[in-house]
Each structure stands twice: as C-alpha cells, then as structure tokens.
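Q: G/U mismatch-specific DNA glycosylase, please. Structure only.
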Amino acid sequence: MRRPTKDELEAARDRVIPDVLPPDGGTLRVLFSGINPGLYSGATGRHFARPGNRFWPALYRSGFTDRLLDPSEQDLLPSYGLGITNLAHRTTARADELTADELREGGRRLAELVERLRPSYLAVAGVTAYRTAFGRPGTQIGPQDETFGHARVWVLPNPSGLNASWPLDRIAAEFRRLREAAEA
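A: Structure for G/U mismatch-specific DNA glycosylase:
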C-alpha cells in the first residue's frame, strides 16, 4: 500500500473511520478503543495505520493474533473475538486537538456501545484520554475496578510511536496481561 500524500493527509482531517466489530450476536472478547484516528488512518481508512504505531505488533506479540496483521487486514479482528472503536471518531493530526467535551461525549458513546455489544473487556489505549473521558484523574495503566455493564475495563498505554516512554516490549507485555485475563 502506498503512503498517502501530504494533500491526502490534510484532506483526511475530520473523517470518520467505521468501527471494526463482529456481526450482530458475534463473540467479542475485547473491544479496543483508541483515542481517535490520526490523519494517516483517516487517509487509509484503517485503524492504527501510521507506520510506527505499535498497536498491530503489540497485538501479535501478546498472542491476541497468530501472526502480525497489517492494518489493511483489520476486518479479520472479529474472527479473533476482537473489535476496534475510538473515543472520538474525528480524525486529527494530534490527539491534543480534541476537546475535553469531545472526549467526555465519546466516553458516553463508548459506554452505550459496550452495553449493546457486551464484550468481556473494554481496553482503552491511552490513559490521559481515559482520565478525561470518564472523569477518573488518578487512573493508571492496567485493570480497573470499574465495569461498564458486564465488561471489565483495562487501560492500555497509547501505542502511538510518539509515546516514547512505552517501548514496544512494554506495550506488548501489557497487552499480554490483558489477553491472559480475557482468556481466564
């Protein structure tokens, strides 16, 4: 797949990428929620698509998938009992372009989606966005005490390549902890 041009990236601003979800009634072990799609994802129509994003490698290294999936293969996730959504659907160049109100509204929408889909786990990738969206300023990475309906909540580190404090091995280890809990 060729890389989007600068003009294509700019044209992707404010686009919405559809969620990747199982068909109605399908099993959903873990619903992953990103913060919002970046311009690269908006231009390609694929979640976590920017080269350097560690979501797909972490998913594989943690054992959620049996091979490294390319973002273009995102529609295979439901066959693994996995799905992807975002707190905010609007594509931006940076997550800090989102307002606190957008994140809180996204949190309400995410809670409704979880109630409808009934995943075993909701995994939010991005602790700062989670804190804002759900009014939980002290949240740390890992399993949370709260639930959304029947879903347990796990906060993951943001897999963006810009998150230098979390190298891929540490991100994959946290994904692995989640996978092991979801399989227990």
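A: Brief note, in case it's useful. The beta strands are 30-34, 82-86, 121-125, 142-148, 151-156.
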